[in-house]
Design a protein that fits this description.
single chain, alpha/beta, 7-stranded mixed sheet, 7 strands, 17% strand
């Protein structure tokens, strides 16, 4: 795997760690995969604070996906940049057509631990390209998960991806986390992904820019570190995370945006 692909092990480690502690996220599959595939992480990549952050981020994404699936029970799901994540298993009882999408080397690893079914598919694709979208069946509603992806795409590549999605599907619902522009610049020198050889990352400060460029409407910004998840921490760790790493402090580095097509009733 190249550096970008290896970054999948950082959130995998985070989810496995919090799951093993019995807080924030229950993910036995992450525990099992990390035990078999994990390797020594360096510096911030192995920080307990980052594991809490990764666990919270995934829990917030899970909640959003569940909410959208309840509202749009016939929607298909595209999880772009799925890595080794077990979201489809964490949510459970999924009957929707679901595509877990990532680079070929990642999907090759993924197939050691996941089996395709009539409704669940693993697709090799590059998010910086858009040709693969035209090959997918068109559906009335599509739920697009982009967790830990946008920062690896140049802004124009992100625009092209969203534009291709809204042209292919009638109604698109997108949930994605983004670095701020400051965080992207700082990441060249100090970021957990540096430990696996990644330095060039990209940020977005104005969520309305993507709406202007693609026509997909900006819905709202979500909280990546909600109090109900921070409160699963104990004592000093809870207070430190709440005061130093969560809330408005987190938003200076990291944002979570929801978009949907304006054709939505």
């Amino acid at each position: 795997m190249n550096g970008v692909n290896k970054t999948l092990y950082i959130p995998l480690y985070g989810k496995a760690s919090v799951s093993k502690k019995g807080i924030i996220l229950k993910d036995k599959k992450a525990e099992m995969i990390w035990e078999k595939e994990g390797f020594p992480l360096k510096g911030k990549a192995k920080s307990k604070w980052l594991t809490y952050y990764m666990g919270m981020r995934s829990a917030v994404f899970d909640s959003w996906v569940k909410e959208k699936l309840e509202k749009y029970p016939s929607a298909s799901v595209l999880y772009i940049g799925c890595g080794m994540d077990s979201r489809i298993e964490r949510i459970g009882n999924i009957k929707n057509t679901w595509y877990d999408i990532d680079f070929p080397s990642v999907i090759q690893e993924r197939k050691k631990y996941y089996q395709e079914t009539e409704s669940y598919h693993m697709l090799c694709a590059d998010a910086s390209k858009t040709e693969w979208i035209a090959e997918l069946p068109k559906t009335e509603q599509v739920i697009v998960i982009m967790e830990g992806v946008s920062m690896y795409l140049k802004l124009q590549e992100l625009v092209q991806l969203l534009d291709a999605l809204q042209k292919h599907y009638k109604n698109v619902h997108i949930f994605m986390d983004c670095y701020t522009e400051f965080a992207a610049r700082a990441s060249k020198y100090k970021n957990p992904v540096n430990s696996v050889g990644v330095q060039n990352l990209h940020g977005l400060d104005e969520p309305g820019y993507l709406e202007e460029q693609t026509g997909i409407g900006f819905v709202k910004e979500h909280d990546l570190t909600p109090d109900y998840l921070i409160n699963e921490l104990k004592g000093f760790e809870r207070q430190f995370f709440k005061c130093v790493l969560g809330g408005n402090m987190a938003k200076k580095m990291y944002r979570l945006f929801e978009y949907q097509t304006n054709r939505q009733p």
